[in-house]
């Protein structure tokens, strides 16, 4: 029990930092691709979609729900970061291979978020672009950065 508490304590700061970095990077990437380049959604619509995972399609009725979506996205990114750091703190294999572990982690996060969408009844089957974009976003701009930041911060502990 003491070991778990120690690992949790060691993982909180590295995990929060890793989750913040990953959350910022994935949002910047998705906003550039989906809002600026593809014009698939507006900035407000992007975060309303995130909010819809909690409150359903009613999120699109009020633009202010975008703030809820932003808060949810920040919270989820931080939680995923702490979870990854806790695993990495316990396992040298995870820490020593950030590209592999970050790739696997990114895929796990993407699939878990898809399940959230299914549970919220907002899931739509992605086309090829949507799937490729989601994989790039979650692996390159979330999973791998989280792995590198967590590794760097955990090695300082």
Write up what this structure looks like.
This protein has 157 residues and is mainly alpha-helical. Helix content is 83%, strand content 0%. The protein has helices spanning 2-37, 43-55, 65-90, 92-96, 98-119, 128-156. Helix 2 (43-55) crosses helix 3. The longest helix has 36 residues, at 2-37.
Instruction: Classify the oligomer.
Output: single chain
Residue share in helices?
A: over 70%
Distance between the termini: 20 Å
Q: How many distinct domains? A: 1
Major sheet size, sense and barrel closure:
none
Radius of gyration: 16 Å
| Quantity of strands, as a count | 0
The stretches of 5 or more residues where confidence is low (pLDDT under 50) are none
Q: Which of globular, elongated, flat, extended, rod-shaped describes the shape?
A: globular
Number of helices: 6
Indicate the proportion of strand residues. Answer: under 5%
Mean pLDDT: 94
Q: Tell me the structural class.
A: mainly alpha
Question: What is the chain-wise order of helices and strands?
Answer: HHHHHH
Keywords:
globular, 6 helices, 157 residues, mainly alpha
């Amino acid at each position: 029990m003491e070991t778990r508490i120690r690992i949790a304590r060691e993982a909180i700061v590295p995990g929060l930092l890793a989750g913040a970095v990953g959350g910022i990077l994935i949002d910047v990437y998705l906003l550039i691709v989906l809002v600026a380049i593809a014009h698939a959604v507006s900035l407000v619509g992007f975060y309303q979609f995130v909010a819809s995972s909690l409150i359903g399609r009613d999120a699109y009725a009020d633009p202010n729900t975008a703030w809820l979506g932003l808060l949810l996205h920040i919270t989820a990114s931080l939680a995923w970061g702490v979870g990854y750091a806790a695993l990495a703190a316990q396992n040298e294999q995870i820490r020593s291979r950030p590209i592999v572990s970050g790739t696997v982690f990114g895929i796990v996060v993407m699939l878990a978020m898809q399940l959230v969408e299914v549970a919220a009844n907002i899931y739509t089957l992605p086309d090829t672009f949507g799937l490729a974009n989601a994989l790039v976003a979650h692996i390159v701009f979330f999973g791998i950065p989280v792995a590198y930041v967590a590794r760097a911060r955990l090695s300082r502990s």
